[in-house]
From TrEMBL:
Keyword Acetylation applies: no
Domain of life: Bacteria
Complete-protein stretch covered: 1 to 227 of 372
Lineage: Bacteria, Bacillati, Bacillota, Bacilli, Bacillales
Keyword Heme: no
Protein keywords: ATP-binding, Nucleotide-binding, Transport
Entry protein name: ABC transporter ATP-binding protein
C-alpha cells in the first residue's frame, strides 16, 4: 500500500499537442477512497491511464510511494483497473476469469486457488465459479470483473465509470458493494464518474475536474453543501 503523488502532471495528445490534463497536483493518501468527477472530456480517464501506465506522461512526475513510476510499464506499477466495459473471457468459467492474471504471473496453483476463492467470497459469487459469463446477470458479471481486480492486493485500485452500463437498481446496489469492498480490503481506490450522486455518496474526498484542471478537492460535504 502506498501514497500516490501527482506532481505538475501534464498530458498533451497528438500532433497539435492539445492539452488534456494541465498542471495536475494531487496527493492521494494510503487507503483513501477518492472520486474524480467532472463532465465528459475533462481529463479523468487520461489521468487514471497515466497512473496505470497505459498512457505516457507529457510532463511532471507520478510517484507511487517514494518511486517515480513515469517510465514503469503497467505490470511493474502494481495497480488494478476496472473499466466500464468489463471484458470477461466468454469461453472461460468465472473461476478461470478471476484466476487469469495470477496464472500469467505463474503463481503456484494452490495459492491461485486460495486467492480466487477468497475474492469470490468477498464478492459473494462463490456459487457461480463454474458458470460462463453469459450465464450471469449484469451485476454478477460486474462482480467477476471486480474479482479479477481484487484477486491480487495491488498498491491501488482504479475504476473508470465501472457502473455506467448497469441499470439504475443495480447501480445503487453495486455502489454500496464497492464501498464495502473498499472497507474490507483497505486499498487505495480512485473512482472516476460523471455522476454527481456517486461522487456525493462514495468517496472520502472528491476531486472536481473541468477542462483538464482540478477545480476543487474536498470532502463530499464541502463540495456539495456549499452555503
Ligand atoms: P474524461 O475521462 O473526463 O471523459 P478523457 O481523459 O477521456 O476525459 O479526455 C480528455 C481530453 O483528451 C478530451 O478532450 C479527449 O478528446 C482527449 N483525448 C482522450 N484520449 C485521446 C487520445 N487517445 N488522442 C487524442 N485525444 C484524446
Ligand atoms: P487442471 O487443469 O490441472 O485440472 P483446474 O484449473 O481445472 O486444473 O483446477 C485446479 C484447481 O483449481 C482445482 O483443484 C480446484 O481447487 C480449483 N478449481 C478449478 N475450477 C474450480 C471451480 N469452478 N470452482 C472451485 N474451484 C475450482
Amino acid at each position: 500500500m502506498a501514497r500516490i503523488l501527482f506532481n505538475h502532471v501534464y498530458k498533451r495528445y497528438g500532433k497539435y499537442k492539445e492539452v488534456a490534463v494541465k498542471d495536475f497536483n494531487l496527493e492521494v493518501e494510503d487507503q483513501e477512497f477518492l472520486v474524480f468527477v467532472g463532465p465528459s472530456g475533462c481529463g479523468k480517464s487520461t489521468t487514471l491511464r497515466m497512473l496505470a501506465g497505459l498512457e505516457d506522461i507529457s510532463e511532471g512526475e507520478i510517484y507511487i510511494g517514494d518511486t517515480i513510476v513515469n517510465n514503469y510499464p503497467p505490470k511493474d506499477r502494481d495497480i488494478s483497473m476496472v473499466f466500464q466495459n468489463y471484458a470477461l473471457y466468454p469461453n472461460m468459467s468465472v473461476y478461470e476469469n478471476i484466476a487469469f492474471g495470477l496464472r500469467l504471473r505463474k503463481q503456484p496453483k494452490h495459492e491461485i486457488d486460495l486467492a480466487v476463492k477468497r475474492a469470490a467470497r468477498v464478492l459473494e459469487i462463490e456459487n457461480y465459479l463454474d458458470r460462463k459469463p453469459r450465464e450471469l446477470s449484469g451485476g454478477q458479471r460486474q462482480r467477476v470483473a471486480l474479482g479479477r481486480a481484487i484477486v491480487r492486493t495491488p498498491q491501488a485500485f482504479l475504476m473508470d465509470e465501472p457502473l455506467s452500463n448497469l441499470d439504475a437498481r443495480l447501480r445503487v446496489q453495486m455502489r454500496s458493494e464497492i464501498i464495502s469492498l473498499h472497507r474490507k480490503i483497505g486499498v487505495t481506490m480512485i473512482y472516476v464518474t460523471h455522476d454527481q450522486v456517486e461522487a456525493m455518496t462514495m468517496g472520502d474526498r472528491v476531486v472536481v475536474m473541468n477542462r483538464g484542471v482540478i477545480q476543487q478537492v474536498d470532502t463530499p460535504e464541502q463540495v456539495y453543501n456549499k452555503p
